[in-house]
């Protein structure tokens, strides 16, 4: 039986004190773990270790940390997803799947065609939930690398950030009106790849102008129109396959 996995952002000492109430409830009340039971701790940066429960309280669990090890990403390339805010449940699902597919970083932008369910909401309050969903995906999938995540007021701002990260050579837009398919000769010599996708209602004229001025390459990810939460997953999977990473 696989050990329970717990996100531990400070995995650098022989002991760790967990004060996350949700984690404490899950371990003590749901899994009913006791003193001397073992879990796996990971820091989201590649390190993991065995943690032996030393003490369980209402507001804390103390672990003794054994044998910290470091794992490398199993993927040859670095992948980035530039995606819009979409319906909360769909965005949670999308981020969990991107974690499972080994994405390195996620840039979330507020699209011009923002879904009406989000139009009057404070999007900053959603961000914490998104980060929780990513941690949960790491715990469940045995991924030891938690992607970085950043938030932007528009597509232009997110693309500016992507340019600072690695230029535009490896930035591809997955677009319903694109005519060109993803080909292996476009990516084999790239170390970093970014995929840009739009919301359910598509890119606005202003967003298309921004991408055209930056001369970003547009690609299609299939024969049919994909949902906003599906397109990044399909696109990233296709890039993995072309790079021989599966």
Question: What are the key terms here?
Answer:
6 helices, 2 domains, Alpha/beta knot, alpha/beta, 11 strands, Ribosomal Protein L25, Chain P, 246 residues
Quick structural summary:
The chain has 246 residues and is an alpha/beta fold. The protein has helices at 21-30, 88-100, 123-141, 155-166, 205-213, 231-242; strands at 5-7, 15-18, 38-42, 47-56, 61-70, 78-84, 105-109, 148-152, 171-174, 192-196, 217-219.
| Number of E strands | 11
Q: Please, how many domains?
A: 2
Main beta sheet strand tally, sense and closure? 6 strands, parallel
Helical fraction equals: 25-40%
Rg computed from alpha carbons, rounded to a whole number of angstroms: 20 Å
CATH superfamily of the largest domain: SPOUT methyltransferase, trefoil knot domain
CATH class of the largest domain: Alpha Beta
Sum up the overall morphology in one term. elongated
Strand content: 15-25%
Protein name: Ribosomal RNA small subunit methyltransferase E
EC number: 2.1.1.193
Keywords: Cytoplasm, Methyltransferase, rRNA processing, S-adenosyl-L-methionine, Transferase
Domain Ribosomal RNA small subunit methyltransferase E methyltransferase: 82-238
């Amino acid at each position: 039986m696989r050990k329970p996995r717990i996100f531990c952002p400070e995995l650098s000492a022989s002991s760790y004190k967990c004060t996350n109430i949700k984690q404490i409830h899950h371990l003590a009340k749901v899994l009913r773990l006791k003193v001397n039971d073992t879990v796996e701790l990971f820091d989201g940066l590649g390190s993991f270790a065995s943690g032996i429960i030393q003490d369980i309280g209402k507001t804390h669990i103390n672990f003794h940390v054994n044998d910290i090890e470091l794992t490398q990403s199993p993927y040859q390339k670095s992948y980035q997803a530039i995606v819009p805010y979409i319906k909360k449940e769909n965005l949670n699902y999308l981020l969990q799947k991107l974690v499972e597919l080994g994405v390195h970083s996620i840039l979330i932008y507020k699209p011009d065609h923002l879904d009406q369910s989000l139009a009057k909401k404070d999007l900053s309050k959603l961000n914490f939930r998104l980060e929780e969903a990513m941690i949960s995906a790491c715990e469940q999938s045995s991924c030891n690398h938690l992607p970085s995540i950043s938030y932007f007021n528009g597509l232009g701002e997110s693309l500016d950030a992507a340019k600072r990260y690695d230029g535009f050579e490896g930035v591809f837009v997955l677009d319903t009106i694109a005519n060109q398919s993803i080909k292996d000769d476009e990516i084999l010599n790239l170390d970093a790849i970014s995929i840009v996708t739009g919301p359910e209602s598509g890119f606005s004229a202003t967003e298309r102008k921004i991408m055209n001025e930056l001369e970003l390459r547009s690609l299609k990810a299939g024969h049919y129109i994909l949902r906003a939460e599906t397109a990044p997953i399909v696109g990233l999977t296709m890039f993995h396959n072309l790079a021989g990473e599966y």
